[in-house]
Amino acid sequence: MYDSRHRSSVRRKTYIVAPLVLLGSALASGTIFGASPAAVNVRGKLTGWDKLVPQVYAEAAADPHRYTWREPSPTVKTEFRRLSANVSRDVCIVATSAVQAQAHEPLAVRLTGGRLTPSTLVLSPGSRLSFKNVDPFSHILYEVGNDKWAANTTASGSNREWAATTPGLHVIRDQLFPSIAMYVTVDASAVEFATPDHDGAFLMAVTPGDYTVKVFFEGKQVGKFADPVHVGPGGLDLSTLALAGGAGGESK
To answer: Is the link from the previous residue into 118 a cis peptide, with omega within 30 of 0?
Structure first.
C-alpha cells in the first residue's frame, strides 16, 4: 500500500541535507565570509649561480692593504678554488604581482663570520628585519646614505631592528668589517620571496594567481624571467632557471 507520509518524510530530509552539503562546500572553497584561498607551492631550481661574484671580493682584490694567508692547494680542483657567490645566502627569488603586497613577517638576519645571512632580500613596504649579532664581539652596522639608520654599535648577542619604509635599494654595511654587505630591495609588488638551498633549489608559498618570478643578486635582477606565470590550485613546478647568460627555463 502506498504511504504518502513516507514520501513527504523522505523529501523533507532531502531538502534539509542539501543545504548542509552546499554550506560545507562553500566553507571549504572559501566563498563564505571572504576567506582567502589556501596557499600553494612554487618550486624551482637555479643554475649558473656559481658565475656570480660578490662585490666585496672585487673590493678586496682592488685594495692593496687587504691581505690573506690562504695558499691555493694544487690538489684542489680549480672549480672549487674559484671565488663565487653562496647561493643560499647571496641570492633571492621573489614573486611579484600587479596587486600591492602586504608586509612580510619579521625576518631574523644572522650576523656572523664576516657576513650577513641572508645578504640579498626583496621585501614589500612595511616589512621588518631583526639583525642578530651571534659573534663574540660587537659590530657597527649602518645603512648607506640613510642618517636615520646611522652607524650604531650592536653588541654580541643583541639585536638591531630595521624597517622597509622607502621603495628602492637599501645597502647595509659594517664600519668594522668591510666584508659585511647586505642588499635589500623594497618593492610594493613583492608578494613573497624565498632563498634557495645550497644546491639552488627553492620553494615558496603563494595563493593561486598570476605572478612574475624574478631572481635578485646584490640588489640587481639576474637572468631574464620576466614572463608572467599562472599559479593554479595545484601550485607550479618551474623548470631549471639558468642564471648564466640570462636565459630562463620554461614552466611545466
So the answer is: yes
Query: What distance in Å separates the CA atoms of residue 228 and residue 183, rounded to the nearest whole number?
Result: 25
CB 111 within 8 A of CB 139: yes
Helix, strand or coil, per DSSP, at residue 114: coil
C-alpha distances out from residue 100 to 119, 125, 148, 189, 249, Å? 24, 10, 26, 5, 27
Written as nine digits, the cell of 110 is 644572522
Contact 209, 219 (CB under 8 A): no
Between 243 and 214, residue with greater pLDDT:
214
Distance CA 112, CA 114 (A): 6
Q: Give the number of other Cβ atoms within 10 Å of residue 122's Cβ.
A: 26
Q: What is the DSSP letter of 30?
A: T
CB atoms within 10 A of CB 42: 23
Q: How many Å apart are CA 54 and CA 129, to the nearest integer?
A: 22
Q: Which residues pair with 205 in a beta bridge?
A: 41
Q: Is the dihedral of CA 54, 56, 62, 65 positive or negative?
A: negative
203-233 pLDDT per residue, tens: 999 999 999 999 999 999 998 765 789 999 9
Percentage above 90 pLDDT, the chain: 57
Residue 60's Cβ-count burial label (10 Å; 0-12, 13-18, 19+) is: middle
Quote the CA–CA distance of 246 and 225 in Å, as a whole number. 8
pTM, rounded to two decimals:
0.76
Between CA 235 and CA 200 the distance in angstroms is: 19
Q: What is the pLDDT of residues 157-188, one digit of tens each?
A: 999 999 999 999 999 999 999 889 999 999 99
Between CA 211 and CA 227 the distance in angstroms is 9
